[in-house]
């Protein structure tokens, strides 16, 4: 009788866990189209608004396919501290670099707590802006693909970032951030495409990742403390500095 009792107790324990109670929000339910052409920015913003307003843990799911997104801000604070953005597809920046080129960032999380990004690919489509800069013309500065600002308890796992206009991932003014199993890639002649930039942050861990861009693999800005980097494959690029 002990074994059935144990199974029952385990089932009850799982059923009452935060994971079992997580509210589910699919971007498709808000009008996102996985065709790589339709602007899905408003749909993603609506899904975030609902997840952020939830009083229980929330999961935003992005299925397979390509989703075209303009500049998007995921603003906190939220009513819960456990939001999972699960990406099975690809998020694609506008093909015309001027659309977000002066926006500083493409995807921005600000003042959030307990956000996890799992899987997926970010395609910054930065090649056009790189060509503009390398030609010596007057060009936009470019947008960072993904930034977390003034946030805490953040996890980024299994994410790929390709061809960012500027920096790929920025951690600014954050606490307790874990980046694991990410892949960052851009052409060797792409200007100022640092893989991960950490600044004014503490408790940042970067593990088991591969970064190859035209600039620093990891750049460390002022005000950074308690930064741990392990098992990093770096290059081409300027290393960690």
From TrEMBL:
The keyword Signal applies. One of its GO terms (molecular function) is polygalacturonase activity. The keyword Kinase does not apply. Residues 1-22 form the signal peptide. GO terms for biological process: carbohydrate metabolic process; cell wall organization. It is found in: Secreted, Cell wall. InterPro entries: Glyco_hydro_28, PbH1, Pectin_lyas_fold, Pectin_lyase_fold/virulence. Keywords: Cell wall, Cell wall biogenesis/degradation, Glycosidase, Hydrolase, Secreted, Signal. Gene3D superfamilies: Single-stranded right-handed beta-helix, Pectin lyase-like (2.160.20.10). SMART domains: PbH1 (SM00710). Belongs to the glycosyl hydrolase 28 family. PANTHER family: PTHR31375. This is Polygalacturonase. It comes from Dovyalis caffra.
